[in-house]
Amino acid sequence: xxFLKDMRSMQKTAKDMTPPEHRGVAGGFRAMKDLASTxxxxxxxxxxxxxxxxxxxxxxxxxxxxxxxxxxxGLTVNENPQVELDLQVTVxxxxxxxxxxxxxxxxxxxxxxxxxxxxxxxxxxADAHTILIA
Length: 134
Hints:
By secondary structure, the chain is of the alpha+beta class. It has two helices and five strands. It folds into two domains: about 1-45, no CATH class; about 60-134.
């Protein structure tokens, strides 16, 4: 009798955790639509970042950046984390300026992005805050 009681308890908990707009058959379809919409937005962002990266590799000004902080965003791509980096960027010997940048980084390369590390960057000539870690 305890097993059936546990099953009912789990069902009630699951129902309580499901938002009202995602309950029932219509709600299930709505939940799938919401998930697909979120996935499409993430893929669109990734495609935009890829195009920006290709453009910066071709036309970006070369510089260096010193990592001042690193944070995990909670997003992973192919089991590699997207991180948010606080950087001090220097281009052509000018005074350094602060940039916060998000980029997917290989799990193997994370030690190279610890605070104090210097990394090569490509800087957008039109917008100095748009960068790519090269």
